[in-house]
Structure formats: structure tokens, C-alpha cells
Amino acid sequence: MAGVIFDLDQTIVDSSIAEHLRRQGNWGSVYPLIPKFALYPGIHEAFAYLRQKQIPVAIVTSSPSIYCGKVTSHFNVSCDNRVCYHDTKLRKPHPAPFHLALQKMGIDTKNVISFGDSPHDISASHAADIASVACLWGTDDRDAIIKASPHYIIERSEDLPEFMTKFF
User: What integer is the mean pLDDT of 73-92?
Assistant: First the structure.
């Protein structure tokens, strides 16, 4: 069985307007901004395709679970599993969050692909022996994520559904 791991911020949603507050851990000020976030084009179609093919999806984020739940609920993004900040002692770029996601999905590393916008996402994927996709639409450092040597690169979120149909 195949599976997919997604990062949340800047991969699924554009949450850049709250980035400084997220880095400060000022979650009380972040939550009211969630309706101003934007779901990237192609995300709903990609998730719908994965559902149709019955491919499990996990979101692995360095943000707290409450935040992840609020964002995914607001944008109606359905995933089978979430691994958030408090779920592991070690965070990306360490592979621990990815290992927990694999365990929750019951899937081997050879059958999973991960999508992320940062070098930490790519490094964690490599450390977990998972194929990685650099999502350039949300990254704030294109050069660094490309230098992290992802297995695949997708420039635009609109191309994500087509990538899914070719990959799965």
C-alpha cells in the first residue's frame, strides 16, 4: 500500500501572514488569522484523487495539534493521520515525526512520498528513507530546498493533481 505525507504550512495552505506570530508561539493571535490563510490551488483535487485511490494521507507539521486541526477543519482538508509538535520529542529535520506517521499509517518507507516547502522537510524525508518532493510554491528559500536534493520538484501547486496521477 502507498501513502503520502504532507507538510502543512506553505505546502497545503499559505499561512505566511501569521508566520511571525507562529514563530513566536503566539497561537492566540494566530487562530483569528486562519480565515485569512489561503488554500493553495490544486490541493483539494490532489486530496480527492488520493481519497479515490484509497491512499492514506498524513500531515506532519512542527505546529501544535490544535492549530493543525483548526487549519485543516477550516479548509476542509481531510487526512488519515496527523503528527504535530507535541507528538514526538524530536522535530524535523529529524526523521522521528516521519517514522511516527509511517507507524500510524502502517506503511513501509518504500511506499511513501512526502511533500514539503523547506529543506527540513527534505532532510527529514531523506533521514527516514522516504521519497521527497520540494514544493516550490510556498518556499521562502528556493535555492536551499533545491540544494537539499529532493527526489522531485514541483513548481506550482496547480501541478500537484497531475503529479499524483502519474505517481500513483
Answer: 93
| Helix residue ranges per DSSP H, 31-132 | 43-52, 65-74, 96-105, 119-127
Cα of 75 vs its chain's centroid, Å: 14
Amino acid (1-letter code) at residue 85: Y
Range of the domain at 145: 3-167
Quote the number of domains for the chain. 1
Q: What is the CATH number of the domain that holds 153?
A: 3.40.50.1000
Distance CA(96)–CA(45), nearest Å, equals 29
Residue whose cell numbers read 527529514: 124
Q: Please state, in angstroms and rounded to a whole number, the distance separating the CA atoms of residues 135 and 116.
A: 6
What pLDDT does 1 receive? 67
